[in-house]
Amino acid sequence: MQNKNAHSLEKTIDRLSDPQLHRMIYMPGHGKPMPSASILEEIINNIRAVLFPGFYGESKINTQSVNYHIGHNIDRIYEQLTEQVRRGICFDCPNKPYEECEKCKDQAPDLTAEFIETLPELRKVLGKDVEATYNGDPASKSQAEIIFCYPGIKAITNYRIAHELWKLGIPLLPRIITEMAHSETGIDIHPKAEIGESFVIDHGTGIVIGATCIIGNGVKIYQGVTLGAKSFPSDEDGNPIKGVERHPIVKDNVVIYAEATILGRVTIGANSIVGGNVWLTRSVPENSRIIQQKAQTMNFANGEGI
User: Fold this and answer.
1) What is the arrangement of strands in the sheet containing 273-274, beginning at the earlier edge strand?
2) Sheet holding 267-268, edge to edge
3) Taking phi first (over 0 means left), then psi (-120 to 50 degrees means alpha), and beta for anything else, what does residue 303 get?
4) How many CB atoms lie within 10 A of CB 192?
5) Which carries the bigger pLDDT value, residue 35 or residue 96?
6) CATH 2.160.10.10 domain position(s) in the chain
7) Within 13 Å, how many C-alpha atoms sit on residue 6's CB side?
8) Do residues 302 and 284 lie in contact, with contact meaning Cβ atoms separated by under 8 Å?
9) Most CB atoms closer than 10 Å: which of 66, 244, 259, 274?
10) In this structure, what DSSP letter does residue 279 have?
11) What predicted TM-score, i.e. pTM, was given to this entire model?
């Protein structure tokens, strides 16, 4: 390497190492690096293999082997997830400068075990999501096809896993897990959102569900739907105020068609239908039907009216 180029590279390295850029550099707390996205992806695949045995994981399942299959995957999940939970806790720990933090060290195994205990109930809820998707889609040939192929179920599965971790107070991991599904499916569900049973996402690409959304049972939404926030308030210094309940509440058995946008802390009453491309910033009562005004049809001859 020429001296001129070596000197230039050294200057660049010094500039990139500037302490003033500390917000862009992660210094591991307690010697723990950040959670690993690749390991978390493996964990999610193992959780899928437990929730949907035979559909995920390279195993031939029968009545004799299913117990072994699930046990093997549970062992892997516990071992790997404990370490990732520990990293997430250390990432968020206020005692980060110190090498030893017994609180962080002791929490991870118990939190991981608590999460694993939720998996049977999680499977029941996901089973209702799958059944509702099958019943609502005439193109689907079986519930097995939906489990293995449908992006909506993949995104909902990641969300429901992440939401359980969120409820346990585990930092960072829930958001990484939902963003994995976002990258794969185009469906963006914040892990904090509360979503009831028999939830259906049809097609799904471009859906956004914000952090403070509350969605009831039997809700169905189509591609491009946004359940988002309007502009939110700032404090006296101009900084955005965090934690405001700013996203919609969607009651039971609501259908929201493609590209509809619902913004703010509004309530969509039960059994309502929101039509495609509707822009809604107000609450509507139950049994409502909100649609766009019909387009006008006009005929022109010889260039008139253009």
Assistant:
1) 200-202, 220-222, 255-256, 273-274, 289-290
2) 194-195, 214-215, 249-250, 267-268
3) left
4) 17
5) 35
6) 193-294
7) 3
8) no
9) 274
10) E
11) 0.90
Listing from the earlier edge strand, what are the strands of the sheet with 208-209? Answer: 188-189, 208-209, 226-228, 261-263, 279-280
- Tell which CATH architecture fits domain 19-187: Orthogonal Bundle (1.10)
| Antiparallel, parallel or unpaired: β 214-215 and 194-195 | parallel
Beta-bridged to residue 240, according to DSSP, are 234
Place of tokens 């259906």: 200
Where in the chain are all domains bearing CATH 1.10.3130.10?
Answer: 19-187
Tokens for 221?
Answer: 């939404």
CA distance 46 to 37: 14
CA 231 to chain centre: 22
The class that CATH gives domain 193-294 is mainly beta
> Distance (Å, rounded) from C-alpha 48 to C-alpha 277?
34
